[in-house]
């Protein structure tokens, strides 16, 4: 899989980041929330990222 950075909140490579892949998918790097109250299948996970990063990656396509 080839991965390219779409947007990040820092240059340290340990901050929330959105990546685009050559599989026509998006990868999201962020913190794993623990107190969400949702039931998530074992093979899936949740990742929490700031809206600032979404706006940086997708611009005005996302409303506030």
Q: Please give the radius of gyration in angstroms.
A: 13 Å
What share of the residues does DSSP label as strand, in percent? 15-25%
Number of helices: 1
Could you tell me the number of beta strands? 3
Low-confidence parts: none
Spatial gap, N to C terminus:
32 Å
* SS content category: alpha+beta
Order of helices and strands: EEEH
Question: What does the average pLDDT come to?
Answer: 86
Biggest sheet: strands side by side, in what order? 1-2-3
Shape: globular
Helix amount, in percent?
10-25%
Largest sheet: 3 strands, antiparallel
Structure at a glance:
12% of the residues lie in helices and 23% in strands.
Could you outline the blueprint of secondary structure elements for this entry?
Blueprint: E1 3-8, E2 17-21, E3 26-29, H1 51-58
Antiparallel strand pairs: 1-2, 2-3
Explain the overall architecture.
- By secondary structure, the chain is an alpha+beta fold.
- The chain has one helix and three strands, in the order βββα.
- Strands 1-2-3 form a three-stranded antiparallel β-sheet.
- A hairpin with a 4-residue loop joins β2 and β3.
- The longest helix has 8 residues.
- It is globular.
- It starts with a strand and ends in a 6-residue tail after the last helix.
């Amino acid at each position: 899989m080839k991965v390219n950075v779409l947007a990040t909140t820092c240059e340290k490579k340990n901050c929330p980041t959105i990546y685009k892949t050559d599989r026509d998918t998006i990868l999201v790097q962020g913190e794993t929330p623990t107190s969400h109250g949702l039931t998530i299948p074992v093979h899936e996970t949740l990742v929490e990222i700031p809206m600032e990063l979404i706006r940086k990656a997708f611009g005005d396509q996302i409303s506030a």
